[in-house]
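Researcher: Before we compare anything, I want clean individual predictions. No alignment, no superposition, just each chain on its own. First chain goes here; please echo the sequence and then give the structure tokens.
Model: Echoing the first chain and its structure:
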Amino acid sequence: MNWLAFFNAAALAVQTIQAHKMRALLTVLGIVMGTGTIIGVGAILTGFDASISAVLSSFGPESIIVFKFPVGPRTSDLTGEERTRKDLTYENAVHLRAKCDACEQVSPMLIINGVNMYARYKGNDIYGINLFGVEEAYEREGQVDMHEGRFFTDEEGRGRAAVAVLGADITKSLFANENPVGKRINVAGHEYEVIGTMNKPAASMFGSDDVRIVVPYLTIRKNYPAEKELAIVVMARKGQLAKAMDQVRVILRIDRRVPYTKPDNFALSTAEQMVSDFRQITSMVALVMVVLSSVGLLVGGIGVMNIMLVSVTERTKEIGVRKAIGAKRSDIILQFLLEAVVLTALGGFAGIVFGWLIAAVSRLIFPTLPTSVPLWAAALGLLISAGTGLFFGIWPASKAAKLDPVEALRYE
């Protein structure tokens, strides 16, 4: 077999498809849907992964979040032991600050949120806010990017001052074009003076609003004495993350009187570990979507095989003529295999366009979701669709090649 025979067979396959456009379209519809769905969902998951990973990584490569159970995405529910763990205490944070040599900064953090949490200024309300209680060290840990005004000082924190720093979307909702610095707002029944505003984080989840209100830790403890779920944000010294985690673990085990035979009754979470946990979840979702989308490819492949068998029957006399003038079995096999491959490859190309449209629509709905169709995904989609045609075209091509030329010439 030479290249001329290959190109002639390919040209014949294209001519046959052009002669039966509607039949070809209906045949490869499953291929189009399967390939398009895989590429579209892949683009969305890639964008979602990039968005969430950027958010989790924004905690910083040297940061550790200490909580009573692991923070971040989970592949399973909390265990009974995790639900019954004692909350961390402010004293735990004080001891870490005093005893952890590898820790650069230590800040307790109390987060209060819920549908009933609101902020109000002169009749303007915003609900569903996140109220953070932290210490002044929180700003030095790189978690705050100031826009106007200032962050509260250590003296204001120790003095339980009623001051607050607002997130970007809260500032926009409550004050519009007015300068909020120096104004007083009501947050779920408590008055705070606004001393600064923050820029929206560069890395944020798609569709999310910056509804943070940050106040001194002891102030929020005074206003919400019943809240117990404390987290501790630790920033390790540069290059000493592993050492800091070991020291934090030892100090907390001693503080919480954990027997040496028992596992930790608290969790240390890092950005790298949270990203890894999240990618385990997205990989499972991607696997499920690929399996479901493969049903479309299977249906499309069966359709291709069926239509190729019909084509063999319709063109029996043509096959007999070709064999009578010297065509070999390999030439007949090549002709029908190429027809199946070209058919499904065209369906794969249409599926790529369909997947790109899914990604484009997703970007319109969620402007902050960085969806894109990577080149490798488009190439893989085209390869899979062509491979589907090759696999499901083997039997019809073999059947055509086995036809007896005398019987084929008699066929009407």
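Researcher: Okay. Second chain, same rules.
Model: Second chain and its structure:
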Amino acid sequence: MRIKNNTKTSLSGGLIMLHEIIEKLPPSERKIASFILEQPHEAIHCTASELGELSSTSSAAVIRLCKSLGLKGFQELKIRITGDLQKDPDMEYRDIQPGETQELIVEKVTNNSLQAIKETTEFLNYETLDRAVTALKKAEKVHFFGVGASGIIAQDAQQKFLRLNKAVSAFTDVHNAVMYIANVKEDDVVFGISFSGETTETVKTMKLARQKGATTISLTRYGSSPVAESSDINLFISASREVPAPFRSGATSSRLAQLHMIDILFVSVVTDEYDKADQYFKEIRTAMEFLKEK
């Protein structure tokens, strides 16, 4: 049984959350989000009623905004924003420009990758993570699905979870995925990966899996999306904000954030079932040594 530590000493990520979902919010909640993003220092000293008045909305709209963010209340949002304001302002996403020096390329790519991973962990919901880990532990079969770059993440996940002696598959072709999902059961998990959360094939796959009674887990960028709405358990990564430029280095950052989340899930399952996993790993090492024999 996992012992949960619900004490967070340095919550942050509130401004990132607001930035990512503001365009999808109802008008009143969007007004509050805009006020906070424009004047975060003032917002953290307000009560819900005061913030509602300053944003020409209401305290009820403030509470609804916190629910839209998946937070427990306004106090948690203020704590997260306070954490954001304490960050180093020099640490932000920077895209690669034509003619950059090797030194700047190394610096920017490294910085963006670290930012994506850090921001992903900042708004991680630990209760949701625990639900995902529990579902993966109990699953008789696990099917990972992703299209394009997300398909690479699905294959990485398959390679990891195969070590736990589970029936694991990874699909990048929707037709092959549907053939497997047509026969999924309640004890199975279908795990959809889509950075945008809007990939049509992934949405269809998740909806079918849900209809069949399987537990569905999604991994998308933060915020509501068709893929997330079609899943029982939603995991999010940083949206990797990009500066308009010819090069889209944010795509690299998002890939690393996805891999990071898969690693978190895998290690969590292993530590929860350490004795069993250790035995599987020993058997794998024995098999690998057999291959090396001449």
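Researcher: What stands out in the second chain?
Model: The two ends are 44 Å apart (CA to CA). Additionally, Confidence is low (pLDDT under 50) at residues 1-9.
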